[in-house]
Amino acid sequence: MTISPEAPSRAMDLLRFATAGSVDDGKSTLIGRLLYDSKAIFEDQLEAVEATSRSRGDEYTNLALLTDGLRAEREQGITIDVAYRYFATPRRKFIIADTPGHIQYTRNMVTGASTADLALILVDARKGLLEQSRRHAFLCSLLRVPHLVLCVNKMDLVDYSQEIFESIADEFTAFAAKLDVPDLTVVPISALKGDNIVTRSENMPWYEGPSLLHHLEHVHIASDRNLVDVRFPVQYVIRPQSTVVADYRGYAGQVASGVLKPGDEVMAMPSGFTSTISSIETADGPIAEAFPPMSVTIRLADEIDIARGDMICRPNNRPAVSQDIEAMVCWMDESRPMSVGGKYAIKHTTRSARAIVRGIQYRLDVNTLHRDECADGLGLNEIGRVKLRTTVPLLADEYRRNRTTGGFIIIDETTNRTVGAGMIIEAA
Amino acid sequence: MKGVNAMTAAYRVSHLDALEAESIFVMREVVAEFERPVLLFSGGKDSIVMLRLAEKAFAPARIPFPVMHVDTGHNFSEVLAFRDARVEELGVQLIVASVPEAITSGLVRESADGMRNRIQTPVLLDAVEKYRFDALFGGARRDEEKARAKERVFSFRDEFGQWDPRNQRPELWSLYNARVHPGESIRVFPLSNWTELDIWHYIARERIGLPEIYFAHDREVVDRDGMLYAINEFLPLRAGEEPFVAKVRYRTVGDASCTAAVKSDADTIEKVIDEVAATRITERGATRGDDKVSEAAMEDRKREGYF
Question: What sections of the protein cross the membrane (chain A) (predicted)?
Answer without folding.
Answer: none
